[in-house]
Design brief:
- By secondary structure, the chain is mostly helical.
- The protein contains 7 helices and no strands.
- The chain has 2 domains: about 70 residues, lambda repressor-like DNA-binding domains (434 Repressor (Amino-terminal Domain)); about 35 residues, no CATH class.
- Helix 2 packs across helix 3.
Length: about 130
């Protein structure tokens, strides 16, 4: 017995204004702001890199579970990822190079971190003069 085909909805919904970015563009921007590669994001979520690429190019649509996974991995709310709520921004974005180095520093033992931070602080005090 064949099941009938689903009917096309006749509901007329007003368009949503989610800004100039598509969901995929927003996903890519948020990933880059966090200095993450597609491979790193994919590993964090538990998928392969090519799927991240497909989502970022709007070739795949996010279901609820993937929306939650991306939001958690990028440390944003689902509303922010969807564009329903804007992320607070000071207009500046941290350098990807600096963010990558910070992640490496965070992996160091605490003693090495303290030594490195003292060196950086000394350099910055000298640069302020």
């Amino acid at each position: 017995m064949c099941s009938p085909m689903p009917r096309r909805s006749t509901l007329q919904l007003p368009p949503l204004d989610l800004g100039d970015e598509t969901l995929g563009q927003r996903l890519a921007r948020l990933r880059k702001q966090r200095a993450m590669t597609q491979v790193e994001l994919a590993q964090k979520i538990g998928i392969i890199q090519s799927l991240v690429s497909e989502y970022e190019r709007d070739k795949l649509r996010l279901n609820a579970e993937m929306l939650a996974r991306f939001a958690l991995a990028l440390k944003v709310s689902a509303d922010e990822l969807l564009g329903l709520r804007k992320l607070p921004s000071n207009g500046k974005h941290p350098s990807r190079k600096v963010l990558r180095r910070l992640r490496k520093i965070e992996k160091l033992p605490s003693h090495d971190q303290a030594t490195l931070l003292k060196t950086i602080d000394t350099f910055l005090r000298g640069a302020e003069r």
